[in-house]
Amino acid sequence: MSLDITTSIPTGRKLIQSYGEGRFRVNREIFDRPIIVFPEAVITWDVVSFEALSSAHFQPVIDAAAEVDILLLGCGPAMQLVTSGIREKLKKAAITIESMDTGAACRTYNVLLTEERRIAAALFPLD
């Protein structure tokens, strides 16, 4: 079952409209793999699983550090903690990472987006 979390879409902003069944819908575009969502862009995230995460996987977010204060990490069906190495690399770029389940990350991203916060969300799909 896919959960629709659509609100009014701010012009030019990437709103997560729904998630579930192994995919995301962002501004009417479907993604069936992990993604990183920024307020103005979505990129596919080349990572196979949460367990395979390394600090290198977060380079796209670090490259955007001038526009990102908070990274929401949607870990899948349950919250998991990232390694201290990942946390430290993001901290050096002045980015705070918040791990949570993917549904919570999608909803939190949308709320913070409407508040015009400097955010990104790295998301693993839910099956």
Characterize the structure shown.
The protein is of the alpha+beta class and 127 residues long. The protein has one domain: Hypothetical Protein Mth938, Chain: A (3-Layer(aba) Sandwich). Helices cover 21% and strands 29% of the residues. It contains 3 helices and 9 strands, in the order ββββββαβαβαβ. The strands form 2 sheets. A 5-stranded mixed beta sheet has the order 6-5-9-7-8, sandwiched between helices. A hairpin with a 2-residue loop joins strand 5 and strand 6. The longest helix has 13 residues. It starts with a strand and ends with a strand.
How do you describe this structure in short?
With 127 residues, this protein is of the alpha+beta class.
Q: What count of helical segments does DSSP give?
A: 3
The end-to-end distance, rounded to whole angstroms, is 9 Å
In terms of per-residue confidence, which ranges show pLDDT below 50 for 5 or more consecutive residues? none
Q: What is the general shape?
A: globular
Order of helices and strands: EEEEEEHEHEHE
Report the average pLDDT across residues: 94
Structural class: alpha+beta
Beta-strand percentage range: 25-35%
Count of distinct structural domains: 1
Spatial order of the strands forming the largest sheet: 6-5-9-7-8
> Any idea what the radius of gyration is?
13 Å
CATH architecture: 3-Layer(aba) Sandwich
The CATH topology annotation reads as Hypothetical Protein Mth938, Chain: A
Helix content range: 10-25%
Q: Count the beta strands.
A: 9
Largest sheet properties: 5 strands, mixed
What would CATH call the class? Alpha Beta
